[in-house]
Design a protein that fits this description.
Blueprint (H helix, E strand, L loop, with lengths): L11 E7 L6 H9 L6 E8 L5 H11 L3 E6 L4 H11 L4 E4 L5 E2 L3 H12 L3 E9 L13 E5 L1 H13 L9 E4 L16 H10 L3 E13 L16 H13 L7 H10 L1 H12 L8 H21 L4 H12 L1 H16 L1
EC number: 2.4.-.-
Keywords: Glycosyltransferase, Transferase
Enzyme class: transferase
Length: about 350
């Protein structure tokens, strides 16, 4: 359902944190300027970039009335998003990462879904892409309307089976849904507890499977690269999630939060195996040994959890022999490249 535009259409504010994305920023902003929905404001929050991203933000703001440039000292994505939230004037709030892009009708679709169902938020499908690829399947998509704790249950199920479940970029939130919420600053994986809290504050949400958001997985994407010290913030984020979910008795929310926590060591081991270690202060041998201990401790929970079989097998392999599994991963990568 597309929104009907008129003089009283609600303003949508889109917060875009920007840090050293000079190669991809204009592609991202072009997809926002091409939106079929209006009115829209695009808040480019330069997070102390050391490349030309800040200048690109200024140039785009000077040439487009819908774009506003905000410059902050480097504080991470959480701080940049908070600055954007503070400056946003819209009735609805969305987020887009500066190396991603969106379909032309994404916000028209989201505003229409929220309005049609009198919801607090709406979510669309996401596709992982490696470049300028086709927009994917965007027809005959299912729409679900959920209320109360059902929204949290779906979030936690998606976190078990899906991709980027905790990304706020898939959603359009009413301002009231984000009232008093902010991202944790100076850390990574700050979006996990933010999205959980946002969903918990929604009385009704609309979920569409239509793919409208394109999550860039190219060479310098934020999601790629070797292990850094900050990647261990995932443990903190998972602990916070478990604490938040411990208050819930509906469905399997609490159990799935524990599964998410148990997967932390596996996620970090996978990152090391695929991309290596980028931080010279991290000792690979001792780090792998520590992560393996955590994985072995949590392995029974993971084996019983509603995870894909491939993920369970990978967990078992890493727990038994990291080095052999790493070699298998590298072999699979070479086959894929060939």
């Amino acid at each position: 359902m597309l929104a009907t535009r008129n003089d009283r259409s609600p303003l949508v504010s889109v917060v875009v944190p920007v840090y050293n994305r000079e190669l991809h920023l204009e592609r991202c902003v072009s997809s926002l300027l091409d939106q079929t929905y209006e009115p829209i404001e695009i808040l480019l929050v330069d997070d102390g970039s050391s490349d030309s991203s800040g200048q690109i933000c200024d140039r785009l703001a000077e040439s487009n009335d819908a774009v506003r440039a905000i410059h902050e000292e480097n504080g991470g994505a959480g701080a940049a998003r908070n600055a954007g939230l503070a400056a946003a004037r819209g009735e609805y709030i969305g987020f887009v990462d500066s190396d991603d892009w969106i379909a032309p009708d994404m916000y028209e679709l989201l505003v229409g879904l929220v309005g049609e169902h009198d919801a607090d938020a709406a979510q669309i499908g996401l596709a992982l892409v490696g470049g300028e690829e086709p927009n994917g399947q965007r027809v005959n998509s299912r729409v679900r309307v959920l209320e109360g704790k059902e929204c949290l249950q779906k979030l936690m199920e998606d976190a078990t089976f899906g991709v980027a479940a905790f990304s706020p970029c898939r959603c359009l939130f009413s301002r009231r849904a984000l009232d008093s919420l902010s991202f944790r600053e100076g850390v990574v994986n700050e979006d996990i507890d933010f999205v959980y809290k946002a969903f918990s504050g929604c009385s009704r949400m609309v979920f569409s499977e239509q793919v409208e958001y394109f999550y860039f997985q190219g060479g310098d994407s934020n999601s790629l690269g070797g292990l850094k010290s900050k990647d261990f913030d995932l443990y903190t984020a998972a602990d916070i999630l478990v604490e938040l979910a411990s208050k819930e008795t509906y469905g399997s929310i609490c159990h799935l939060a524990a599964v998410k926590r148990a997967r932390t060591s596996l996620s970090l081991l996978c990152k090391i195996a695929y991309f290596g270690i980028a931080d010279a202060s991290i000792n690979k041998r001792s780090t792998v040994a520590s992560l393996q201990r955590d994985l072995r401790r949590d392995l029974p929970l993971l084996i019983r959890a509603p995870l894909p079989v491939s993920r369970k097998v990978l967990a078992l392999l890493f727990a038994v022999n990291y080095r052999l599994t790493e070699l298998m991963v590298h072999g699979a990568q070479k086959v894929g490249l060939g």
